[in-house]
Amino acid sequence: MVLPHQGIDVILGMNWMNENHAVLDIGSRMVQLKSNASGKILRVHMPNQKHIEPTVNATEIQEIKKIPVVCEFPDVFSEELPGTAPVSRRPYRTAPDKLKELKTQLQEQLDKGFIRPISSPWGCPALFVKKKDQGGKRLCVDYRPLNAVIVKNKYPLPHIDILFDQLAGTRVFSKIDLRSGYYQIKIREEDIPKTAFSTRYGLYEYLVMSFGLTNAPAFFMYMMNSLFMNELDKFVVVFIDDILIYSKNEEKHEEHLRIRTQTLRSSAISFLGHILSEKGVAVDPSKVECVLNWKQPETITEIRSFLGLAGYYRRFIKDFSKTAKPMTSYSWSPNCEEAFQSLKRSLTTAPVLAQPDVTKPFDVYCDASGNGLGCVLMQEGRVVAYASRQLRKHEANYPTYDLELTAVVHALKIWRHYLLGNICHIYTDHKSLKYILTQPELNMRQ
C-alpha cells in the first residue's frame, strides 16, 4: 500500500524508536530522543491523530502491480521470495516393474498436453501413489523442497462435520468426483518452470496444476466455491474435487441434478470416508478396514498415525479420549494393547449418527470422572455426536461440582453452533448443578 504523507515530515516506527531509546510522553504528545555523541536531548512534537486518519481512510488503495514505477522496474519488485535459488533434487530409483508404468503415464500426459520435456535448473523427484478407488498408481511429484519456499495460500478448507450438518432431512444423494480435477487448471506461464520434475527418462514440467503442490488444494477449493456459490448449502456441498448433491425427495433431486447437469442418483452414498443415507451418517466400512488391519505400533510416530486415523471418526466413538488415553504414553504396555484393540472394536460397531435438525430441541448428556470428560448430543432419542477429552493437570484437582460443570461447559463450547439460539436440555448426574443459575456466590472458575 502506498500512502501520501500529507505534510507529515517523517513517520517513526516502533523498532527504530526502541533501538534509539526514545521516550514517549503521550499527554504532551512529545517524543524525546537523546544523542549518544553530544548527549543533547531532542524533543519532537507528534501530530494529532485526526490529521493522519483521513489519509488512510480517504486514500484509494492501489495494487502494487499497477503503480507505474513497479511496472517500469518489475525485476526490482519481484514477487519471488528473496534469496530463493531454484530447487533441484535427484530422481528416486524406480523399481523395474514400475518403469513400464512410468513410461506409459509420461506418454499419456505428453499426449494430453499436461506436461512437456525441458532442461531446467528446477526439478523435484517423481513417485507413484496408490489410487484410493481403482487400485492403480497415480504419478505424483515430491514437491516438499519446493513447498518449503512457497508463500502459503491461506484459503480455508471446510470442516467435514460442518458439511454433514447441511444434510438434515435429506434422502437422495448424488456424488460427483471430478476426473483429474487438478489437471483442468492451467498454471501461469512464469510459474511453469517451478513445477519441473525429474524421472528416469528425463526432466519434465507441468502446464497444469499438479498433485503435491502446497497451494493446490486451497486454490482448487477457491475455484469450486466460486463455481457453486449460488448452490452451496442449499443442495450442494463441496470438498475440493468431491461434490455432493442432496435432496429431500426424488422430484427435487431431479431438479437439482438438472441444474448441475448430472444424472447419477443413489439413496446411500460414500462421501469423504462416510456413508450417507436417509438414516444419517455412518462410518465407511472400506475406510475402517485399514484400521482393523493396523499392526501393533512400535514407535511414537506409528502410535500418533493410528490415533490420528481413528480420531477422524471420534464423533462416532463414545468416550474416545478415555479409551485412547493409555496409548498416549511413550512405552507400550498391556493397557496400551487393550486400548488399541478397543478402538478397533468401537469403529466396527459405530452407530449411525442422526443428522442434526436445528429447528428441533437438542438433548445434551454430560459426565465427568477422574479420567476425563464425556458428552453426548442427542435429538429425538438418536445420537447426533459423541465428544470427550482428557482432564488437564489443574482440572484433576477440581472438586466434583466444578468437574461436572466443566463437562457441561465443554459440551456447550464444542456444540455451540448447534445450541446457540436453540432450545436444549442438559442432563447431568450431579443434582447440585441445577441450582447454578440461582447460586448467590460463584468462585473464579464458575
TrEMBL record:
Pfam families (alphabetical): RT_RNaseH_2, RVP_2, RVT_1
GO terms, molecular function: endonuclease activity; peptidase activity; RNA-directed DNA polymerase activity
Coiled-coil annotated spans: none
Record's keyword terms, sorted: Endonuclease, Hydrolase, Multifunctional enzyme, Nuclease, Nucleotidyltransferase, Protease, RNA-directed DNA polymerase, Transferase
Protein's UniProt name: Reverse transcriptase domain-containing protein
Species classification: Eukaryota, Viridiplantae, Streptophyta, Embryophyta, Tracheophyta
Domain Reverse transcriptase/retrotransposon-derived protein RNase H-like: 332-422
Highest rank taxon of the organism: Eukaryota
Organism the protein comes from: Paspalum notatum var. saurae
GO biological process: proteolysis
Keyword Nucleotidyltransferase: yes
CDD domains to which the protein is assigned, alphabetical: RNase_HI_RT_Ty3, RT_LTR
InterPro entries registered for this protein in UniProt: DNA/RNA_pol_sf, Retrovirus_Pol_polyprotein, Rev_trsase/Diguanyl_cyclase, RT_dom, RT_RNaseH_2
Keyword Protease on entry: yes
Record-annotated Reverse transcriptase domain positions: 129-269
